[in-house]
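Researcher: Checking consistency across runs. Here is Neuroplastin again:
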Amino acid sequence: MFGIWNAFCLILCSSCLIFVSANSIITNEEYPGSGIIMDLSKTLTLQCNTSQPSTLTWYKDGVLINATDDRISIFQDENKLIVEKAELEDAGIYVCVFNETTNATIQVFVKTFIEPFPKSLNLVQGDTLRLQCRATGFPVPKITWQKGDEIINATEERIQLKPNDKNLTDGMLIISDLDYEDRANYVCVADNEVTGAVNASIVVRIKDKLAALWPFLGICAEVAILCAIIFIYEKKRVKPDFDESDTDQIPESKNVADKDKVPDVRQRK
């Protein structure tokens, strides 16, 4: 009985020793288990410190890091892993292992980012609206769409939510057979529940089907009005010319009459 108790205590104490040893590793996280939020294109620094001298190896997502990439450097004397010009693919789960027995885990996240939309988009009745929400981050963000303050659900046949060109779920909003009721401010919200939610918005305007004809009809109306003005002006200008020609002929007729009267006067004498 005593031997069994000693064996149980030995196993328990061994477990305690391993537990204490594992927690003796101090990482450069803000607090244990909080992870590190990485900024893209900047330097990522990971550090694991222990009070015992040991050999350190690093793993990412279960794969040994050999620092063959020129951007990655491992400093054994400082227990650091440095990644220059960090990329989205550098996010993940890192594990630092001391003497191949004791380890600590550091999760590296990436802030969610959305590529901005144009300020507005003009479409015509009957057109199809296609909006792509290009969002990045780690963990992969979840996409939701809003029309104004209302969440868009693909319950109508003409509304679809599909993966975008980056294969992000619900990253593309498609609305076919647009009408005036579809005019609104559309918002894409991306949230990975770790680094917080971000959004991008665009104002969609819907024009009449005949909107393209209005400029042409306006030009035609202007030409018609101009022709009418010219016609009226010419008509008024020609009429005084006729009046002046009539008045010019009156003195001549009087002179002719006077000449005809001269012989009569001479005959009386």
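Researcher: Does this match what you'd expect to see?
Model: One thing to look at in this run: Residues 115-207 form a domain with the Immunoglobulin-like fold (CATH 2.60.40.10).
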